Amino acid sequence: MNGKDSDMTRKSPRVAIVGGGISALTCAVDLKEKGFDFTIFEKENSAGGKLLTEKIGGLVVEGGPDSYLPEKVWSVQLIRKIGLAGDMLCSNDDFKGTFIYSGGRLHRLPEGVMLMVPTMIMPLATSSLISWPGKIRMGMELFVPRRKDHKDESLADFVTRRLGRECLEKIAEPLVAGIHTSNPVNMSVLAIFPRFIDMEQKSGSLIKGMVKAMKQMPPPNPSGPPMTYFMSLKEGMQELAHRCVSHIGAERVKTGAAVVSVVKNEKGYRLAFGDGTTADFDAVVLATPSYITKDILKDVDRELCDRLSAIEWSSTATITLAFRKEDIKKPLRGFGFIVPRVENRRLNACTWSSIKWSYRAPEDTLLIRCFVGGGHHEELVSLNDEELLGVVLEELREIVGIAAKPVVFKVYRWFRGMPKYTVGHLGRIAAIDEKLKAHRGLYLIGCSYRGIGIGDCVKSGFDAAAAVEALRP
Ligand SMILES: Cc1cc2nc3c(=O)[nH]c(=O)nc-3n(C[C@H](O)[C@H](O)[C@H](O)COP(=O)(O)OP(=O)(O)OC[C@H]3O[C@@H](n4cnc5c(N)ncnc54)[C@H](O)[C@@H]3O)c2cc1C
């Protein structure tokens, strides 16, 4: 991998992209379109990072993400660029519905609750999930004065202030903090939900702001492809990575290539690899998690690395189980259920994958996916497979009454898999950006910084490609 000398005077800079997750692959797709000379270096034997789909028998098993949000338009833009639009998969919304475990049973999330904001009166009024005082407190949100200062606030403080404690514990925490595998007590509302702050400031109320936003939503485009709130891909989410690789050319993706360090020299950047070789580039896009990036950059800028160290991470595991449908005696409702932290259970959530999505399992099989760790009982992630299976089966029996034995099970552990955007996150990102100004041609992208979801990661890849383009003389 000993590279040719780099040359900043060359018309098009040579670019190294470190890491082969979706942020890196997006950047590469865009750099190819812009005519750059680039190489991706990925430490594992295949690209995709957290996009990990396995075909087990007739099952399509997702180890990492199972969907993307089309409202974050960048994912759909990428999918179109790489010719995958025909494989976009809607969720089976005839069965849609989220259930929340509370007080020993499952309750349907009232219709019209958008993230955590109620937008319809009757479904909330008739809901068994929230007590009457809790419902009245949620309705009082319309009269809570807007906050005057623009300081960051924890999700817990924000929701308690606007919608009340019961909404925090039964809706916002499991629905919102759960997705981010974080604790609402220290999650930054400014980093994760700038939209809510905006609604509070502009409309004076989240309920008013959300109703207004829904009215302004463009009607579905009848000539466009059908869309649901969550979308996936027929072959599973890793197909996105596979198709990016074939689009950019497999020869430009070096797998089994762990980057150990980057040093800056008068010509640009020298990458050192795990096998002792080096290669020179004019620009480097680091698409690795912040805790790895800080080690790679230790010889470039100590202060920058200290700032990267301040980003915390949480660990989670997903456990996929396949059952024979005939063994499941209880009807399964909605797309699955979530468990509030205050219930102190060991399971965080469960998705009925083969009900939510087509093409996931044969007709006679039910595929489900359980989540543990993150904001609740993170220690469970370190259990061995059999122990984790035992925990999950016990929880499923007690929560939904599934007593059957699975015919297949598969565990995926994601140690330090999700960054936690804690209060002050945006300030820390601004401080990192400030330091990066001193390093022309060095870019940091991916889930560590400006959004955890696939859409935000894709956007970070597009943004990096645009920044690289600006280097052209
Ligand atoms: C269990 C789980 C479920 C999720 N579900 C969803 C979902 O349904 N929808 C959604 O939008 N988001 C979801 N997310 C979040 C989303 O999947 C991730 O935030 C996103 O995929 C991260 O992409 P990335 O490009 O930042 O990095 P990653 O995917 O983490 O890629 C980083 C890459 O860098 C490589 N690397 C590390 N060190 C080195 C090195 N030294 N040299 C070279 N390469 C290196 C790694 O091997 C990896 O391939 C989920 C995440 C998890 C963990």
Verbal overview:
The chain is of the alpha/beta class and 473 residues long. It folds into three domains: 14-49 and 235-311 and 422-469, FAD/NAD(P)-binding domain, CATH 3.50.50; 53-94 and 312-420, Polyamine Oxidase, Chain A, domain 2 (Alpha-Beta Complex), CATH 3.90.660.20; 112-216, protoporphyrinogen ix oxidase, domain 3. It contains 16 helices and 21 strands. It has helices spanning 22-33, 73-81, 121-125, 132-139, 155-163, 165-177, 189-192, 194-203, 206-216, 238-248, 290-296, 302-309, 353-356, 385-400, 425-436, 454-469, and strands at residues 14-18, 37-41, 53-56, 59-62, 88-90, 98-102, 105-108, 113-114, 117-118, 231-233, 253-254, 259-265, 268-273, 278-281, 283-286, 312-324, 336-338, 349-351, 365-373, 408-420, 442-444. Strands 7-6-17-18-19-16-20 form a seven-stranded mixed β-sheet, with helices on both faces. A five-stranded parallel β-sheet has the order 11-2-1-15-21, with helices on one face. A three-stranded antiparallel β-sheet has the order 12-13-14, with no helix packed on it. Helix 1 packs parallel to helix 10 and helix 1 (22-33) runs parallel beside helix 16. The protein is globular. The chain binds flavin-adenine dinucleotide. Flavin-adenine dinucleotide is lined by residues 18-24, 41-44, 49-51, 64-68, 258-259, 287-289, 292, 316, 318, 414, 417-418, 446-447, 452-454, 457.
